[in-house]
User: Fold these one by one.
Assistant:
Number 1:
Amino acid sequence: MNNQPELRRRAREAIANGKLPARLPVRTWAGKGGGASCIVCSFPVNAHEVEYELEFETTTFSCTPGTSRVHVHCFEAWQSEATLEAGATFD
Protein backbone atom coordinates (compact mmCIF):
# COMPACT_ATOMS: atom_id res chain seq x y z
CA MET A 1 0.00 0.00 0.00
CA ASN A 2 1.41 3.37 -0.99
CA ASN A 3 -1.63 5.63 -0.61
CA GLN A 4 -0.14 8.43 1.53
CA PRO A 5 -3.44 9.90 2.83
CA GLU A 6 -4.60 6.44 3.91
CA LEU A 7 -1.21 5.57 5.41
CA ARG A 8 -1.18 8.83 7.36
CA ARG A 9 -4.67 8.07 8.67
CA ARG A 10 -3.53 4.62 9.76
CA ALA A 11 -0.40 6.11 11.33
CA ARG A 12 -2.58 8.53 13.34
CA GLU A 13 -4.68 5.56 14.48
CA ALA A 14 -1.54 3.64 15.50
CA ILE A 15 -0.46 6.63 17.61
CA ALA A 16 -3.93 7.12 19.11
CA ASN A 17 -4.26 3.39 19.92
CA GLY A 18 -0.82 3.21 21.52
CA LYS A 19 0.67 0.88 18.90
CA LEU A 20 3.36 3.47 18.10
CA PRO A 21 4.35 6.54 20.10
CA ALA A 22 4.63 10.06 18.77
CA ARG A 23 8.35 10.21 19.52
CA LEU A 24 11.66 9.06 18.16
CA PRO A 25 12.70 5.42 18.52
CA VAL A 26 15.82 4.62 20.52
CA ARG A 27 17.15 2.56 17.59
CA THR A 28 16.10 1.98 13.99
CA TRP A 29 17.29 -0.77 11.68
CA ALA A 30 16.49 -1.29 8.02
CA GLY A 31 16.77 -4.51 6.10
CA LYS A 32 15.04 -7.07 3.97
CA GLY A 33 11.46 -7.81 5.01
CA GLY A 34 10.88 -11.00 6.92
CA GLY A 35 7.13 -11.36 6.48
CA ALA A 36 6.09 -9.75 9.78
CA SER A 37 2.97 -7.59 9.80
CA CYS A 38 3.52 -3.86 9.53
CA ILE A 39 2.34 -2.11 12.70
CA VAL A 40 0.82 0.73 10.61
CA CYS A 41 -0.96 -0.97 7.68
CA SER A 42 -1.13 -4.60 8.96
CA PHE A 43 0.13 -6.01 5.66
CA PRO A 44 3.22 -8.25 5.73
CA VAL A 45 6.61 -6.74 4.93
CA ASN A 46 7.76 -9.22 2.30
CA ALA A 47 11.30 -10.21 1.39
CA HIS A 48 11.34 -7.96 -1.71
CA GLU A 49 10.51 -4.92 0.49
CA VAL A 50 12.56 -2.89 2.94
CA GLU A 51 11.52 -3.32 6.55
CA TYR A 52 12.23 -0.80 9.31
CA GLU A 53 12.50 -2.22 12.80
CA LEU A 54 11.86 0.37 15.50
CA GLU A 55 12.94 0.04 19.12
CA PHE A 56 11.37 2.27 21.77
CA GLU A 57 12.06 2.62 25.49
CA THR A 58 9.76 0.26 27.36
CA THR A 59 9.37 2.56 30.37
CA THR A 60 7.10 4.95 28.46
CA PHE A 61 5.77 2.74 25.68
CA SER A 62 4.11 -0.66 25.99
CA CYS A 63 5.76 -2.18 22.91
CA THR A 64 8.56 -4.67 23.50
CA PRO A 65 11.86 -3.42 22.04
CA GLY A 66 12.50 -4.69 18.53
CA THR A 67 8.92 -5.68 17.76
CA SER A 68 7.65 -2.67 15.80
CA ARG A 69 8.17 -3.38 12.11
CA VAL A 70 7.00 -1.10 9.31
CA HIS A 71 7.25 -0.64 5.55
CA VAL A 72 9.31 2.32 4.32
CA HIS A 73 6.18 4.22 3.21
CA CYS A 74 4.43 3.43 6.49
CA PHE A 75 7.48 4.68 8.41
CA GLU A 76 7.38 7.94 6.44
CA ALA A 77 3.66 8.37 7.16
CA TRP A 78 4.16 7.64 10.89
CA GLN A 79 7.15 9.99 11.01
CA SER A 80 5.06 12.81 9.51
CA GLU A 81 2.17 12.22 11.90
CA ALA A 82 4.41 11.85 14.95
CA THR A 83 6.13 15.11 14.06
CA LEU A 84 2.77 16.88 13.91
CA GLU A 85 1.50 15.17 17.07
CA ALA A 86 4.51 15.75 19.31
CA GLY A 87 6.40 18.50 17.57
CA ALA A 88 9.31 16.04 17.37
CA THR A 89 12.19 16.54 15.02
CA PHE A 90 13.24 13.57 12.88
CA ASP A 91 16.65 14.45 11.44
Number 2:
Amino acid sequence: EQELGVLGEREVFGELAALDPVPRSASVTTLEECYLFRMDQSVLYDLMTQHVDVARGIIRVLCKRIRDCDDLIKVLSTGIRQDGPDGKG
Protein backbone atom coordinates (compact mmCIF):
# COMPACT_ATOMS: atom_id res chain seq x y z
CA GLU A 1 0.00 0.00 0.00
CA GLN A 2 1.63 3.20 -1.24
CA GLU A 3 -0.18 6.51 -1.59
CA LEU A 4 0.62 8.00 -4.97
CA GLY A 5 -1.39 11.16 -4.54
CA VAL A 6 -4.56 12.82 -3.37
CA LEU A 7 -6.92 14.23 -5.96
CA GLY A 8 -9.38 17.02 -5.40
CA GLU A 9 -12.55 18.30 -6.96
CA ARG A 10 -12.66 18.13 -10.78
CA GLU A 11 -9.44 16.14 -11.00
CA VAL A 12 -9.26 12.98 -13.08
CA PHE A 13 -7.85 9.49 -12.78
CA GLY A 14 -7.85 6.49 -15.08
CA GLU A 15 -7.13 8.54 -18.17
CA LEU A 16 -4.38 6.14 -19.23
CA ALA A 17 -6.76 3.20 -19.01
CA ALA A 18 -9.22 5.06 -21.23
CA LEU A 19 -6.52 5.79 -23.81
CA ASP A 20 -4.62 2.51 -23.58
CA PRO A 21 -6.42 -0.49 -22.07
CA VAL A 22 -3.28 -2.16 -20.70
CA PRO A 23 -3.96 -3.28 -17.10
CA ARG A 24 -2.81 -0.80 -14.46
CA SER A 25 -1.25 -1.53 -11.10
CA ALA A 26 -2.83 1.34 -9.14
CA SER A 27 -6.27 1.58 -7.59
CA VAL A 28 -8.31 4.45 -6.20
CA THR A 29 -9.92 4.80 -2.78
CA THR A 30 -12.16 7.71 -1.86
CA LEU A 31 -11.69 9.55 1.41
CA GLU A 32 -15.28 10.80 1.43
CA GLU A 33 -18.52 10.29 -0.45
CA CYS A 34 -18.22 11.50 -4.03
CA TYR A 35 -19.74 11.30 -7.47
CA LEU A 36 -17.65 9.84 -10.28
CA PHE A 37 -18.08 10.02 -14.02
CA ARG A 38 -16.97 7.08 -16.15
CA MET A 39 -16.34 7.28 -19.87
CA ASP A 40 -15.58 4.35 -22.15
CA GLN A 41 -12.69 4.53 -24.59
CA SER A 42 -14.84 4.75 -27.72
CA VAL A 43 -16.90 7.63 -26.27
CA LEU A 44 -13.74 9.44 -25.20
CA TYR A 45 -12.19 9.04 -28.66
CA ASP A 46 -15.36 10.36 -30.29
CA LEU A 47 -15.38 13.32 -27.91
CA MET A 48 -11.71 14.10 -28.62
CA THR A 49 -12.38 13.91 -32.36
CA GLN A 50 -15.31 16.30 -32.18
CA HIS A 51 -13.82 18.70 -29.59
CA VAL A 52 -10.09 19.34 -29.89
CA ASP A 53 -10.11 21.18 -26.53
CA VAL A 54 -10.90 17.87 -24.82
CA ALA A 55 -7.83 16.26 -26.42
CA ARG A 56 -5.72 19.27 -25.40
CA GLY A 57 -7.00 18.99 -21.83
CA ILE A 58 -6.06 15.32 -21.66
CA ILE A 59 -2.61 16.09 -23.03
CA ARG A 60 -2.16 18.76 -20.32
CA VAL A 61 -3.17 16.26 -17.60
CA LEU A 62 -0.75 13.65 -18.94
CA CYS A 63 2.09 16.18 -19.19
CA LYS A 64 1.49 17.26 -15.59
CA ARG A 65 1.57 13.64 -14.46
CA ILE A 66 4.89 13.12 -16.24
CA ARG A 67 6.36 16.27 -14.65
CA ASP A 68 5.11 15.14 -11.22
CA CYS A 69 6.72 11.72 -11.74
CA ASP A 70 9.98 13.38 -12.79
CA ASP A 71 9.90 15.47 -9.61
CA LEU A 72 9.27 12.38 -7.50
CA ILE A 73 12.18 10.57 -9.15
CA LYS A 74 14.44 13.53 -8.32
CA VAL A 75 13.26 13.52 -4.71
CA LEU A 76 13.77 9.79 -4.34
CA SER A 77 17.18 9.82 -5.99
CA THR A 78 18.61 12.95 -4.36
CA GLY A 79 16.34 13.74 -1.45
CA ILE A 80 16.00 17.30 -2.80
CA ARG A 81 12.82 18.72 -4.33
CA GLN A 82 13.38 20.80 -7.46
CA ASP A 83 10.69 23.53 -7.41
CA GLY A 84 10.16 26.08 -10.12
CA PRO A 85 9.74 29.82 -9.52
CA ASP A 86 6.12 29.36 -8.48
CA GLY A 87 7.03 26.65 -5.97
CA LYS A 88 4.99 24.06 -7.87
CA GLY A 89 7.72 22.33 -9.85
Number 3:
Amino acid sequence: MKILISEIPDEGLEVSIDEKVESEIVRLISPVKGNLSIKKAGPEVLIEGDITASLELECSRCLKPFAAEVNAPVNVVYQPVDELEGEGKHEVREEELETSFYRGDELDILELVKEQIVLNAPMKPLCREDCKGICPRCGADLNLTKCDCDTKEVDSRLEILKGLLRRE
Protein backbone atom coordinates (compact mmCIF):
# COMPACT_ATOMS: atom_id res chain seq x y z
CA MET A 1 0.00 0.00 0.00
CA LYS A 2 1.81 3.04 -1.26
CA ILE A 3 0.83 6.64 -0.58
CA LEU A 4 1.92 9.62 -2.61
CA ILE A 5 2.98 12.37 -0.24
CA SER A 6 1.99 15.13 -2.67
CA GLU A 7 -1.60 13.78 -2.67
CA ILE A 8 -2.12 13.91 1.10
CA PRO A 9 -4.81 16.56 1.67
CA ASP A 10 -4.36 19.40 4.19
CA GLU A 11 -6.87 17.82 6.59
CA GLY A 12 -4.94 14.55 6.48
CA LEU A 13 -5.80 11.05 5.48
CA GLU A 14 -7.43 8.20 7.40
CA VAL A 15 -6.34 4.73 6.31
CA SER A 16 -7.90 1.45 7.39
CA ILE A 17 -5.68 -1.58 7.10
CA ASP A 18 -6.85 -5.15 6.66
CA GLU A 19 -3.99 -6.75 4.76
CA LYS A 20 -2.22 -10.10 4.62
CA VAL A 21 1.43 -9.24 5.26
CA GLU A 22 4.49 -11.46 4.78
CA SER A 23 7.58 -11.11 6.96
CA GLU A 24 10.84 -13.06 7.06
CA ILE A 25 11.31 -12.29 10.77
CA VAL A 26 7.96 -13.25 12.33
CA ARG A 27 5.19 -15.54 11.11
CA LEU A 28 1.89 -13.70 10.83
CA ILE A 29 -1.13 -16.00 11.03
CA SER A 30 -3.80 -13.37 10.56
CA PRO A 31 -4.22 -10.27 8.44
CA VAL A 32 -2.90 -7.06 9.98
CA LYS A 33 -5.77 -4.79 10.98
CA GLY A 34 -5.67 -1.20 12.13
CA ASN A 35 -6.34 2.46 11.53
CA LEU A 36 -3.74 5.08 10.72
CA SER A 37 -4.00 8.85 10.55
CA ILE A 38 -1.58 10.41 8.07
CA LYS A 39 -0.92 14.16 8.16
CA LYS A 40 1.54 16.39 6.39
CA ALA A 41 3.35 19.25 8.14
CA GLY A 42 5.62 20.91 5.64
CA PRO A 43 8.06 18.27 4.41
CA GLU A 44 7.30 15.99 7.38
CA VAL A 45 4.68 13.24 7.32
CA LEU A 46 3.16 12.24 10.67
CA ILE A 47 1.58 8.79 11.03
CA GLU A 48 -0.36 7.82 14.16
CA GLY A 49 -2.68 4.97 15.01
CA ASP A 50 -2.60 1.35 16.01
CA ILE A 51 -2.36 -2.04 14.36
CA THR A 52 -3.02 -5.59 15.54
CA ALA A 53 -2.01 -9.00 14.22
CA SER A 54 -1.76 -12.59 15.38
CA LEU A 55 1.68 -14.15 15.30
CA GLU A 56 2.89 -17.69 15.65
CA LEU A 57 5.76 -17.63 18.14
CA GLU A 58 7.95 -20.26 19.76
CA CYS A 59 7.99 -20.37 23.55
CA SER A 60 11.48 -19.54 24.78
CA ARG A 61 11.19 -22.07 27.63
CA CYS A 62 9.44 -25.16 26.21
CA LEU A 63 10.02 -24.46 22.48
CA LYS A 64 6.38 -25.18 21.56
CA PRO A 65 4.66 -22.99 18.98
CA PHE A 66 1.78 -20.82 20.17
CA ALA A 67 -0.35 -17.96 18.88
CA ALA A 68 -0.11 -14.47 20.35
CA GLU A 69 -1.77 -11.21 19.45
CA VAL A 70 0.39 -8.13 19.05
CA ASN A 71 -1.10 -4.66 19.48
CA ALA A 72 1.30 -2.09 18.12
CA PRO A 73 0.84 1.64 18.61
CA VAL A 74 2.15 3.62 15.65
CA ASN A 75 3.63 7.09 16.10
CA VAL A 76 6.19 7.84 13.40
CA VAL A 77 7.46 11.03 11.81
CA TYR A 78 8.85 10.73 8.29
CA GLN A 79 11.31 13.33 7.06
CA PRO A 80 12.85 13.68 3.61
CA VAL A 81 16.19 11.89 3.38
CA ASP A 82 17.59 15.06 1.77
CA GLU A 83 17.74 16.65 5.24
CA LEU A 84 20.29 14.03 6.31
CA GLU A 85 22.61 14.31 3.34
CA GLY A 86 25.80 16.20 3.93
CA GLU A 87 25.71 15.72 7.71
CA GLY A 88 28.30 12.94 8.05
CA LYS A 89 27.86 11.32 11.46
CA HIS A 90 24.74 12.14 13.42
CA GLU A 91 23.93 11.04 16.95
CA VAL A 92 20.30 10.04 17.34
CA ARG A 93 18.61 11.84 20.21
CA GLU A 94 15.77 10.25 22.21
CA GLU A 95 13.12 12.42 20.57
CA GLU A 96 14.33 11.19 17.15
CA LEU A 97 13.77 7.50 17.90
CA GLU A 98 10.36 7.60 16.22
CA THR A 99 11.74 9.27 13.08
CA SER A 100 12.11 7.58 9.70
CA PHE A 101 13.05 8.94 6.32
CA TYR A 102 11.54 8.87 2.87
CA ARG A 103 12.99 9.43 -0.58
CA GLY A 104 10.97 10.84 -3.45
CA ASP A 105 7.22 11.27 -3.18
CA GLU A 106 6.15 7.82 -2.04
CA LEU A 107 5.65 6.07 1.33
CA ASP A 108 5.12 2.33 1.61
CA ILE A 109 2.69 1.89 4.51
CA LEU A 110 3.05 -1.92 4.52
CA GLU A 111 6.78 -1.59 5.24
CA LEU A 112 5.92 0.61 8.23
CA VAL A 113 3.33 -1.95 9.38
CA LYS A 114 5.84 -4.84 9.14
CA GLU A 115 8.44 -2.83 11.04
CA GLN A 116 6.01 -1.98 13.85
CA ILE A 117 4.81 -5.60 14.19
CA VAL A 118 8.40 -6.86 14.46
CA LEU A 119 9.36 -4.14 16.95
CA ASN A 120 6.37 -4.97 19.15
CA ALA A 121 6.74 -8.75 19.07
CA PRO A 122 7.95 -10.08 22.44
CA MET A 123 11.70 -10.64 22.70
CA LYS A 124 11.28 -13.63 25.00
CA PRO A 125 7.90 -15.15 24.09
CA LEU A 126 6.24 -17.40 26.65
CA CYS A 127 3.32 -19.71 25.90
CA ARG A 128 2.11 -18.91 29.44
CA GLU A 129 3.58 -17.09 32.43
CA ASP A 130 4.09 -20.25 34.49
CA CYS A 131 5.73 -22.31 31.71
CA LYS A 132 8.24 -24.68 33.33
CA GLY A 133 10.24 -25.27 30.15
CA ILE A 134 12.18 -28.41 29.35
CA CYS A 135 14.58 -30.48 31.45
CA PRO A 136 18.18 -29.52 30.61
CA ARG A 137 19.23 -33.18 31.01
CA CYS A 138 16.61 -35.35 29.29
CA GLY A 139 14.59 -32.78 27.34
CA ALA A 140 11.24 -33.71 28.90
CA ASP A 141 8.51 -31.07 28.77
CA LEU A 142 8.17 -30.15 32.45
CA ASN A 143 4.67 -28.77 31.81
CA LEU A 144 3.47 -32.29 30.96
CA THR A 145 5.64 -34.56 33.07
CA LYS A 146 7.99 -34.55 36.03
CA CYS A 147 11.35 -36.12 35.34
CA ASP A 148 13.74 -37.65 37.91
CA CYS A 149 16.88 -35.99 36.58
CA ASP A 150 19.32 -34.50 39.07
CA THR A 151 19.48 -30.82 38.16
CA LYS A 152 21.37 -29.86 41.32
CA GLU A 153 24.74 -30.82 39.79
CA VAL A 154 27.21 -27.93 39.95
CA ASP A 155 29.57 -27.07 37.12
CA SER A 156 33.01 -28.39 38.11
CA ARG A 157 34.55 -24.98 37.36
CA LEU A 158 32.38 -23.47 40.10
CA GLU A 159 33.00 -26.23 42.68
CA ILE A 160 35.65 -24.11 44.44
CA LEU A 161 33.01 -21.48 45.25
CA LYS A 162 31.07 -24.09 47.24
CA GLY A 163 34.06 -24.38 49.58
CA LEU A 164 33.98 -20.63 50.23
CA LEU A 165 30.35 -20.85 51.34
CA ARG A 166 31.13 -23.64 53.83
CA ARG A 167 33.87 -21.58 55.51
CA GLU A 168 31.53 -18.70 56.31
Number 4:
Amino acid sequence: IMAHPRTTFILLACAATLLGARVSAFQSGGNETLSVDADHLEIQDKVQRALAQGNVRARQGAMTVTSDRAEVLYSSSLMSSSGAPPEISQIRASGNVVVTRPGEKASGSYAIYDINKRIITMIGNVVLNRGANVVRGGRLVINLNNNGASLDSGGKVGTSKSGGRVTGVFSVPKRNTDAPATPSTASP
Protein backbone atom coordinates (compact mmCIF):
# COMPACT_ATOMS: atom_id res chain seq x y z
CA ILE A 1 0.00 0.00 0.00
CA MET A 2 1.44 3.39 -0.97
CA ALA A 3 0.04 6.79 -0.15
CA HIS A 4 0.82 10.03 -2.02
CA PRO A 5 1.01 13.25 -1.54
CA ARG A 6 0.80 14.35 2.08
CA THR A 7 -1.47 11.50 3.07
CA THR A 8 -2.56 11.12 6.66
CA PHE A 9 -2.39 7.55 7.87
CA ILE A 10 -3.89 6.91 11.29
CA LEU A 11 -2.36 3.75 12.65
CA LEU A 12 -5.07 3.18 15.21
CA ALA A 13 -8.27 4.97 14.37
CA CYS A 14 -8.46 4.51 10.60
CA ALA A 15 -6.18 1.53 10.73
CA ALA A 16 -8.65 -0.42 12.80
CA THR A 17 -9.75 -1.76 9.46
CA LEU A 18 -6.44 -1.54 7.63
CA LEU A 19 -3.87 -2.20 10.35
CA GLY A 20 -5.86 -2.83 13.49
CA ALA A 21 -2.77 -1.83 15.48
CA ARG A 22 -2.68 -0.94 19.17
CA VAL A 23 -0.10 1.19 20.93
CA SER A 24 0.62 1.79 24.58
CA ALA A 25 -0.05 5.41 25.44
CA PHE A 26 2.79 7.92 25.80
CA GLN A 27 1.05 9.11 28.96
CA SER A 28 -0.18 6.73 31.59
CA GLY A 29 -3.88 6.09 31.76
CA GLY A 30 -4.77 4.09 28.67
CA ASN A 31 -4.28 3.83 24.95
CA GLU A 32 -4.29 6.87 22.72
CA THR A 33 -4.38 7.05 18.95
CA LEU A 34 -1.01 7.25 17.23
CA SER A 35 -1.26 9.17 13.97
CA VAL A 36 1.47 9.39 11.35
CA ASP A 37 1.42 11.61 8.30
CA ALA A 38 4.09 12.09 5.65
CA ASP A 39 4.64 12.89 1.99
CA HIS A 40 4.98 9.16 1.24
CA LEU A 41 3.96 6.05 3.17
CA GLU A 42 4.69 2.44 2.30
CA ILE A 43 3.41 -0.61 4.18
CA GLN A 44 5.75 -3.63 4.04
CA ASP A 45 3.55 -6.23 5.73
CA LYS A 46 5.83 -9.21 5.02
CA VAL A 47 8.51 -7.64 7.22
CA GLN A 48 5.94 -6.04 9.57
CA ARG A 49 6.84 -2.39 9.12
CA ALA A 50 5.59 0.85 7.67
CA LEU A 51 8.01 3.36 6.14
CA ALA A 52 7.16 7.06 6.14
CA GLN A 53 9.27 9.59 4.22
CA GLY A 54 9.21 13.34 3.77
CA ASN A 55 7.97 15.74 6.46
CA VAL A 56 7.04 12.90 8.80
CA ARG A 57 4.92 13.78 11.82
CA ALA A 58 3.87 11.22 14.43
CA ARG A 59 1.49 12.30 17.19
CA GLN A 60 0.13 10.60 20.24
CA GLY A 61 -1.47 12.52 23.05
CA ALA A 62 0.54 15.63 23.86
CA MET A 63 3.71 14.31 22.18
CA THR A 64 4.80 14.99 18.61
CA VAL A 65 7.79 13.53 16.77
CA THR A 66 8.86 15.09 13.48
CA SER A 67 11.59 13.78 11.18
CA ASP A 68 12.65 13.28 7.58
CA ARG A 69 11.96 9.52 7.78
CA ALA A 70 10.37 7.05 10.18
CA GLU A 71 10.03 3.29 10.38
CA VAL A 72 7.11 1.87 12.38
CA LEU A 73 7.60 -1.75 13.47
CA TYR A 74 4.64 -3.92 14.44
CA SER A 75 4.19 -7.45 15.80
CA SER A 76 2.35 -9.54 13.23
CA SER A 77 0.94 -9.45 9.73
CA LEU A 78 -1.91 -7.06 9.05
CA MET A 79 -3.66 -9.88 7.25
CA SER A 80 -3.44 -12.25 10.24
CA SER A 81 -6.15 -14.90 10.25
CA SER A 82 -6.45 -14.75 14.06
CA GLY A 83 -8.19 -11.38 13.86
CA ALA A 84 -6.01 -10.02 16.66
CA PRO A 85 -4.61 -6.63 15.75
CA PRO A 86 -0.82 -6.34 15.61
CA GLU A 87 0.85 -4.16 18.22
CA ILE A 88 3.29 -1.41 17.36
CA SER A 89 6.55 -2.13 19.15
CA GLN A 90 8.91 0.57 17.97
CA ILE A 91 9.22 3.78 16.02
CA ARG A 92 12.62 4.65 14.51
CA ALA A 93 12.92 8.24 13.29
CA SER A 94 15.90 9.66 11.41
CA GLY A 95 16.97 12.96 9.92
CA ASN A 96 16.22 16.21 11.78
CA VAL A 97 14.34 14.46 14.58
CA VAL A 98 12.42 16.70 16.99
CA VAL A 99 10.40 15.38 19.94
CA THR A 100 8.08 17.90 21.60
CA ARG A 101 6.01 17.56 24.74
CA PRO A 102 4.53 20.27 26.95
CA GLY A 103 7.44 22.31 28.34
CA GLU A 104 10.04 20.17 26.56
CA LYS A 105 11.72 19.93 23.17
CA ALA A 106 14.52 17.53 22.18
CA SER A 107 16.30 17.37 18.83
CA GLY A 108 18.88 15.03 17.34
CA SER A 109 19.84 13.01 14.28
CA TYR A 110 18.15 9.71 15.17
CA ALA A 111 15.58 8.45 17.70
CA ILE A 112 14.14 5.12 18.73
CA TYR A 113 10.92 5.00 20.71
CA ASP A 114 10.43 1.65 22.47
CA ILE A 115 6.67 1.59 22.99
CA ASN A 116 6.61 -1.28 25.51
CA LYS A 117 9.31 0.21 27.75
CA ARG A 118 8.11 3.80 27.10
CA ILE A 119 11.66 4.99 26.50
CA ILE A 120 12.93 7.32 23.77
CA THR A 121 16.64 7.19 22.93
CA MET A 122 18.04 9.99 20.77
CA ILE A 123 21.57 10.17 19.35
CA GLY A 124 23.60 12.59 17.29
CA ASN A 125 24.16 16.17 18.49
CA VAL A 126 21.25 16.05 20.90
CA VAL A 127 19.80 19.25 22.38
CA LEU A 128 17.25 19.09 25.20
CA ASN A 129 15.25 22.22 26.10
CA ARG A 130 13.17 22.11 29.26
CA GLY A 131 11.77 25.54 29.91
CA ALA A 132 14.71 27.98 29.87
CA ASN A 133 17.26 25.18 30.53
CA VAL A 134 19.31 23.81 27.61
CA VAL A 135 21.52 20.70 27.73
CA ARG A 136 23.63 19.32 24.85
CA GLY A 137 25.29 15.95 24.36
CA GLY A 138 25.67 12.91 22.14
CA ARG A 139 22.90 10.67 23.50
CA LEU A 140 19.65 11.35 25.38
CA VAL A 141 17.39 8.81 27.05
CA ILE A 142 13.89 10.01 28.03
CA ASN A 143 11.91 7.75 30.35
CA LEU A 144 8.23 8.53 29.81
CA ASN A 145 7.25 6.47 32.86
CA ASN A 146 8.84 8.91 35.30
CA ASN A 147 9.56 11.95 33.06
CA GLY A 148 13.29 11.43 33.68
CA ALA A 149 16.03 12.32 31.23
CA SER A 150 19.67 11.24 31.06
CA LEU A 151 22.20 12.82 28.72
CA ASP A 152 25.74 11.67 28.00
CA SER A 153 28.47 12.25 25.44
CA GLY A 154 27.43 9.25 23.37
CA GLY A 155 30.47 7.12 24.15
CA LYS A 156 33.21 8.64 22.00
CA VAL A 157 35.04 11.87 22.59
CA GLY A 158 34.35 14.28 19.75
CA THR A 159 31.06 12.72 18.62
CA SER A 160 29.01 15.72 19.66
CA LYS A 161 29.36 19.42 18.97
CA SER A 162 30.18 19.84 22.65
CA GLY A 163 33.50 17.99 22.11
CA GLY A 164 32.49 14.72 23.76
CA ARG A 165 31.16 16.32 26.93
CA VAL A 166 27.69 17.16 28.12
CA THR A 167 27.11 20.90 28.46
CA GLY A 168 24.23 22.81 29.97
CA VAL A 169 22.89 26.29 30.49
CA PHE A 170 20.46 26.57 33.39
CA SER A 171 18.24 29.45 34.41
CA VAL A 172 18.75 30.78 37.92
CA PRO A 173 15.90 32.66 39.63
CA LYS A 174 16.60 36.34 40.07
CA ARG A 175 17.29 37.30 43.64
CA ASN A 176 16.07 40.52 45.19
CA THR A 177 19.30 42.47 45.87
CA ASP A 178 17.41 45.52 47.18
CA ALA A 179 16.22 43.73 50.33
CA PRO A 180 17.87 44.87 53.57
CA ALA A 181 20.30 42.43 55.13
CA THR A 182 18.85 40.46 58.01
CA PRO A 183 20.57 40.98 61.33
CA SER A 184 22.64 38.11 62.66
CA THR A 185 21.18 36.30 65.66
CA ALA A 186 24.49 34.76 66.68
CA SER A 187 25.88 35.95 70.01
CA PRO A 188 29.41 37.40 70.27
